[in-house]
Amino acid sequence: MVTGAVPDLDRLADRKLATTVADGGRLRALLLELWQRTRMDWGFVTDRLAQTFRKETWIGAHERRFVSETLYGLVRHLRRVDLALERGRRVKKPPRDLERLLALLVLEKLIDAPRAAKVVDELDWNAVAGVDEVIAGERRADKRIALAHSLPDWLATRLVADWGDEAEPLAAALNARAPMTVRANTLVTSRDALHGELAKEGLTSEPGRWSDTALIVTSRTNVFASAAFKRGAIEAQDEGSQLLGELATPGKLIVDYCAGAGGKTLAIAARLGNRGRIIATDVDTGKLEELRRRARRAGVSNVQAMSVDDRQLDAVRGKADVVFVDAPCSGIGALRRNPEARWRLREQDIAGFAAKQKEIMRAALELAAPGARVVYATCSLLSEENERVAESLPCDPLPLADVLGARATGLSRGDAFTVAPHTHGTDGFFARTLRAR
């Protein structure tokens, strides 16, 4: 089948590029520069790549993909790579960036040990290549997870504490590449119609498993250049994020209290068919302006965006049917998309997020009418930001089945909405559905 041949051709092309990088030249220099700039502040890799590709116009499409995946690979596998180099070194000293790059290419089987030895001959590259066997022999689960999936020790320890036997497959899934998932904007089209439209443009896709608006784009073609995107039929959005939007509907007056740039706001608006009223608030006015722009493109007409300190909010205080809060958090559930975040985060940040989440919820609850539905959500998978915050709120539990019906069974862990990459193929999200007193 042709579909089976394409990945092999891509792999062959990657190996050729890897050999070119190992031998030196502009592509190697560019990768090393990008890596050095990334680890200076662990800023968003996507931003680094976008800036570079705008400037370096000599890079072709396949080279761009190779550079992107290699840079992400260095971020995702840093501890594994450094341990591999430590095993292969005869004299103990800090790893050099060129060694890290070569080690990643060896571990990904894009170049072999003899090729790496031609560039750096002071390392035992066969020992480097065998690091995974050593990691697999580690008996302590938290240490094994930290090394195998390049997580900070504190994060691996928390995953084991919160997820038990699921911690290892969860960590592996969090360290994998995320799929390209889009939401069919049902104000413009249906998912089936969008699937057909994308196919005509040469983009292959398949339906998501959990959300009736989700499509997973499986081709490498740029979906943002498609006619469907330009006419507002598509929003890039993880399937788990799309599911969160369902928790906030229906309702005549809905407040999306931490709306950001509006991904979930627009999903809620589409679910409502532009009926009712949605007030989208945030502290970041720049993000709210982006929300307004996206709403115009998507044909959304029932959303009003305003700052959290806008006095217009006073008019709806105590009147909202639904208050939806996707609270700022550590983002652990989205490590597939932002792997550099693991190196920015410190363990003490988690307590800070939890304190801020409680503060936000106190303010958000003032907008809820008595008996209103309250949704507390995060893209974290840590109990300190999730269950512990939800349990502290002066609200009554609202069973998830009352919101999602029979589907709640497949989308919950305990009493809470919970999806994760190892179980659902989505980013990690948590939500508690509650009733305001």
Name the shape in a single word.
globular
Number of helices, where a helix is a run of at least 4 consecutive DSSP H or I residues: 22
**How many separate domains make up the residues?**
4
Low-confidence regions? 1-6
Q: Strand count, sense and closure of the main sheet?
A: 9 strands, mixed
Beta percentage is 5-15%
Q: From the 3D structure, determine the CATH topology of the largest domain.
A: Rossmann fold
- Rg from Cα: 23 Å
Q: Give the oligomeric state of the chains in this entry, treating copies of one chain as homo and distinct chains as hetero.
A: single chain
Alpha-carbon distance between the two ends: 59 Å
How would you portray this structure in words?
This protein is of the alpha/beta class and 437 residues long. It folds into 4 domains: 2-137, N-utilizing Substance Protein B Homolog, Chain A (Orthogonal Bundle); 144-175, no CATH class; 180-236, Sun protein, domain 3 (Alpha-Beta Plaits); 239-436, 3-Layer(aba) Sandwich (Rossmann fold), CATH 3.40.50.150. 49% of the residues lie in helices and 15% in strands. The chain has 22 helices and 13 strands. The protein has helices at 2-23, 26-41, 45-55, 61-76, 78-88, 97-107, 113-119, 125-129, 131-136, 141-148, 153-163, 167-174, 191-200, 227-230, 239-246, 263-272, 285-298, 341-344, 347-365, 387-391, 401-404, 421-424, and strands at residues 180-184, 205-207, 214-217, 234-236, 253-256, 277-282, 303-307, 320-326, 368-378, 395-397, 412-413, 416-419, 429-436. The strands form 2 sheets. Strands 5, 6, 7, 8, 9, 10, 11, 12 and 13 form a 9-stranded mixed sheet that branches. A 4-stranded antiparallel sheet has the order 2-3-1-4. A hairpin with a 6-residue loop joins strand 2 and strand 3 (214-217). Helix 1 (2-23) packs across helix 2 (26-41), helix 11 (153-163) packs across helix 12 and helix 15 (239-246) packs across helix 16. It starts with a helix and ends with a strand.
